[in-house]
Structure formats: structure tokens, C-alpha cells
Specification:
The protein is about 45% helix and about 20% strand. It is of the alpha/beta class. Helix 1 crosses helix 2.
Length: about 110
């Protein structure tokens, strides 16, 4: 079943050039989906990987610190991995107010 899902994602990736936006909340479902998409795309030959993929996480300011750290670490690992495998980006969207980080963080993935 896993291989069927992976093959389906690869086919969808190659069908057109529309960019993909993958939401990452830090929960088990979105983390698994993001991992599955990245794994499927990395299995495609490098010359065919041209569609942009963005992994987006919005900091709602209610995440416990451990989840926020896990998300930041995940996006950072994605960024480092894609420097070799591109094209993708990791986006950590943080609302601007006095209680949040100074600015939104955009990490190239």
C-alpha cells in the first residue's frame, strides 16, 4: 500500500508544473504526509524534479515549546536536505504582534 501511495504522489508530481503547498502542524498526520511527499519526490530522478514544493507551518502561539522546536528542526532538516535535492522551500509563518517572534521566518528548503 505504501508503494502505491508513493507511486501515486510521484505521478501527480510529474503531471503538471503547479507548485505544491504542504501544511505542517507538527502533528502526526501532517508530519507523516510531509515526510511521505518528500520521500516520494526524492525518489524521482533529479532531472525531473522541477515543481516547487513549499512546506508551510503557521505558529499559532499555542504550540507547546517541544512541538515548536520539533517543527523548527524539521523545517531546518528539510532546508538542508533540499540544498542537495531542491527545488523546495520551508516556511515558518509567525504572526506579528508583541507576543511573538520579531518577524516571520522564511527558510529556503
Amino acid at each position: 500500500m505504501f508503494q502505491d501511495i508513493k507511486a501515486s504522489l510521484q505521478q501527480l508530481y510529474l503531471e503538471d508544473e503547479r507548485p505544491w503547498l504542504v501544511g505542517l502542524s507538527g502533528g502526526k498526520d501532517s508530519t507523516m504526509l510531509a515526510s511521505l511527499i518528500i520521500d516520494a519526490v526524492l525518489a524521482i530522478p533529479a532531472g525531473q524534479r522541477k515543481k516547487p514544493i513549499s512546506v508551510l507551518c503557521t505558529d499559532t502561539r499555542v504550540e507547546i515549546p517541544a512541538i515548536a522546536e520539533m517543527i523548527e528542526g524539521t523545517l531546518d532538516r528539510c532546508r538542508k536536505g533540499s540544498q542537495q535535492n531542491g527545488p523546495a522551500s520551508g516556511l515558518w509563518n509567525v504572526p506579528k504582534d508583541d507576543l511573538t517572534r520579531e518577524n516571520s521566518i522564511t527558510m529556503e528548503m
